[in-house]
Design a protein that fits this description.
- The chain has 81 residues and is mostly helical.
- It has one domain.
- Helices cover 83% and strands 0% of the residues.
- It has three helices and no strands.
- The chain is elongated and about 60 Å long.
Length: 81
């Protein structure tokens, strides 16, 4: 059975034979996919946290108002120091 490393090496060899523009296009697609995955993971984490805090049904305006209050409290505390 073919190992993952062997398959990865075969794919890398194939990609290395491509023109540079094709390689760059593939790299950009990988960057985009990883970025989208990261955003999805972050979104899931935020949803879990909001659900745990019983705030999942809270409106965007309410969430931003709370964030503004927190930011102001932190800034006021930092200013005192």
């Amino acid at each position: 059975m073919e190992t993952l490393d062997t398959r990865a090496d075969e794919i890398a060899q194939e990609i290395a034979s491509w023109e540079l523009a094709q390689q760059e296009n593939l790299l950009q697609k990988l960057v985009d996919l990883n970025y989208q995955r990261g955003l999805k993971k972050l979104s899931e984490q935020i949803r879990k946290r909001l659900a745990a805090e019983n705030k999942l049904a809270q409106s965007v305006d309410e969430i931003f108002a709370e964030l503004a209050q927190t930011r102001e409290a932190v800034a006021a505390d930092d200013y005192k120091r």
